[in-house]
Amino acid sequence: MWIVRLFFILMVLFVYTGCDKLNSDPSEFAGSYDSSVWPATFGLGRVALAREIDSLNIDVRPDGEGLPEGSGTVLQGKHIYIAKCAICHGHTGTEGPYAKLVGAFYESDSIQRGEKTIGNYWPYASTLYDYINRAMPYNNPGTLTSEEVYSITAFLLYRNNIIDSTIVMDARTLPQVIMPAQKLFINDDRTGGSEIR
Amino acid sequence: MKPIEGYPGSKIKRRTLLGGAATAAVVLAQTAFGKVMQKAVTQAELIVDPTKKLGPPPGAIGTRSPFEKPFKLPSDTSSRTPLQDLFGTLTPSDLHYERHHGGVPLIDPDKYELLIHGMVKKPMIFTLRDLKKFPSVSRTMFLECSGNFRGSKETLSPQEICGLTSQSEWTGVMLSTLFREVGIDPRATWFLAEGSDAAVMTRSIPIDKGWQDTMVAYAQNGEAVRPEQGYPARLVLPGWEGNTCVKWVRRIEVSDKPFMTREETSKYTEPVTGGKIRQFSFVMDARSIITYPAYPAKVEKGWIEIRGIAWSGRGKVVKVEVSTNGGNTWNEALLQVPVLDKAHTGFRFLWRWNGETTEIMSRAMDETGYTQPFYKTLLEARGGTGGYHFNPVTKWIVQKNGEVYLHPEAKK
């Protein structure tokens, strides 16, 4: 009988120590949900397949990770822009009715900034590809091919005096583009406490 | 419920709806078969003694009194909570503010999936049913858009000044619970949250916040999250700017760097002193506003209970002070208990108004020692420009005739 009991105690010990309990949570609130012993896994959900991940994983990062194959030119971009973007952003990218896209960066911007544009405000060129690809055109989102997105990106960078009209945008060249406003960005500098910042 | 009548933006004109009858109100009435219908109430019906007329039987869904018409104030991009029409601190779900970037998507809950991948041991997909089976948590807290300030003219109501804040009881599974299931790489420092709206909106969030108190919420105020609020599941990050609380969340990608999405670079960043632009300013600083008396209310001489809400994304509100003489002296307001962490907190101060023109205002203090600043102080601290995370003291001018107006300090 004592062997059975010992076995039981060992099992309990095993379960307790084997349980990867959440212990890093500093908020008093969170303590209330994790008061009992949790299993290492609840066995819910399923493993995601590579193709399932690939079909959703569309983000593009500043280092170029996520950029697809293909390329686009300023000239192609101009035609696509006129056909698909100008209705909201204006033929020159400055007159709206929605978001002004074009406006070059001036050093004086760091003192008094006018309306935000890609040229005077956007810190990364990768964001252009990522955003146009996922959300534009506003009334017909997610319909552009990668060639079209590269081309519109090239056109808008050109219009904002950031690249030359002959530069082809692709997975290699886009991450090399340095946006003039990037140097103005700082991480949250509020440090808590009484300081007003 | 469909909008019924008499509010700005209503497409249904009273005349079309009721054929021009002398109607006093529109109510929902129940037919003998239990079907709920819109019914016009005439002036004659209204004056009938309610104790002499049998009312409708119990219904399948409750309705707001036809005499009460609180409405959100929609624009192209957002819709604001009518703070001046509310009592207490909970926002009715249909009056919760809205801000979305590609409209409200229609999502079939049976097809909903949340993918977590990237720097994880095991990339996984959870259905809505899975999420609901995990240990659950409920928490009452505010959500506020960080672009929640207007103050350029006298005729602005609390709704127009800062109606992009609302409070709900959110229920869901802690993200940390899901993190344990997928096994987060210890080198991970950020994660991307992505919605399944037409903007496929994304934000990068430090992984610590995910471990600490981020919730994947599927319920709001006791029922399923409303479509405008992220049905069937959204993130809720206590105390952090609303935009990080990604709605209709479909994907979380764990990473060791931020993704620099459009919303965290070209939007939701603010000019600060020295010509710099501040990014990843997540936490909402402490704020308060007097919601009564406030424009467009009109008051009379005598006893007035000044009421309002205070909140802080840094923790609990510990004190609210009210001035009734233009900021010369301050009085401690009564806080409604229980005071919750990172939640709207009700305050009130009993004031005997002598009928002379004066200015009333409130300022919140939180447990970190932060005091809500005046407009001028904040503007100076930011190097002279406004933008996101603008939380100044709101001043109300109470005129001799009892009319209340905002003291406008902002340029736009």
Brief summary:
Chain A is mainly alpha-helical and 197 residues long. Chain A contains 7 helices and 4 strands; from the N terminus they run H-E-H-E-H-H-H-H-H-E-E.
Task: Describe this entry's structure for a reader.
The complex is a heterodimer of chains A (197) and B (412). Chain A is globular, with a radius of gyration of 26 Å. Chain A has 197 residues and is mainly alpha-helical. Chain A has helices at 2-18, 50-56, 74-84, 86-89, 118-121, 126-135, 146-159; strands at 46-47, 71-72, 169-170, 185-187. Chain A is built from seven helices and four strands; from the N terminus they run αβαβαααααββ. Chain B has 412 residues and is mainly beta. Chain B folds into three domains: 14-69, no CATH class; 75-278, Oxidoreductase, molybdopterin-binding domain (Sulfite Oxidase, Chain A, domain 2), CATH 3.90.420; 287-406, Sandwich (Immunoglobulin-like). In chain B, the strands form seven sheets. In chain B, strands 7-6-15-10-11 form a five-stranded mixed sheet. In chain B, strands 8, 9, 12, 13 and 14 form a five-stranded antiparallel sheet that branches. The radius of gyration of chain B is 23 Å and the shape is globular. Mean pLDDT of chain B is 92; it is low at 1-21. At the A-B interface, β1, α2, α6 and β4 of A face β6, β7, α5, β15 and β17 of B. β4 of chain A pairs parallel with β17 (276-279) of chain B.
